[in-house]
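agent> step 3/5: call structure_predict on target 'SAM-dependent methyltransferase' (Streptomyces salyersiae).
agent> reason: downstream docking stage needs a structural representation; sequence fetched in step 2, passing through unchanged.
tool.input:
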Amino acid sequence: MTAPEQDGLTPRIDTSRPHPARMYDWFLGGKDNYPVDEAMGRQMLAVEPGVPVMARVNRAFMHRATRWLAGQGVGQFLDIGTGIPTEPNLHQVAQHTAPAARVVYCDHDPIVLAHAEALLRGTPQGAVDYVQADARDVDAILEQAGKTLDFGQPVALSMIALLHFVSDEDGAYALVDRLVSVLAPGSYVVISHLTADFHPEAARKVDEMYRANTLTLAPRTRDRFAAFFEGLDIVEPGIVAAETWHPELGEPVPGQDDVVSAGYVAVARKG
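tool.output (status=ok):
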């Protein structure tokens, strides 16, 4: 892996307000979070006790989708909105099936950068790299990812639990369109996304918490989620709750049978 560039500066981690990636880490049982993240996480648990299981269901979907894509012969992956590394990471799942797979991670959170070099190590046959960039800075992502990935060949673009942190006004659909436009035919797009369709009252209260902490949260309906895949061929089983996307491809999630997912997922192919 190429060492992430930091311009000689140590990135500043703001521990004065909660951060979605660190809260997600806390829900998954990780240690890369702070008291402010745990505090808001506990507030969310008071509204919806199933949030930790929902987080694991979402993570398990990523594992299954990556395993499926590698099995389809996809050998390149661009994961935007990586989050704090939690093993097994995407490259570990991909390279288990395809040891020569090339993976580029992208995130803007300094705590992710702090862990990237130590945790994102791949097979000798493959390649793993990390891009420090905001998801909305598509040109910078493509330029840096192009040092590892060949965009003339199929790439799996993965955006797991990312786009509900990008509002319509902030260009969520435009950034997906721009990324998809450079993908070669035979590429895939993988998205998981929060919705209020399944738990409307809990979603409303969580949205209020985010607003109170000046955090963006944009849960979308099924139709608005489907709009991210315009012009692409959605593979079976289509747009579904996270736990129902090819469950036979992965390990069961504890408590999975007792919870309805908080988000939609889908995998689509560019023709």
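agent> step 4/5: record observation. Strands lie at 76-80, 102-107, 127-132, 156-160, 188-194, 233-234, 240-241, 263-269.
agent> proceeding.
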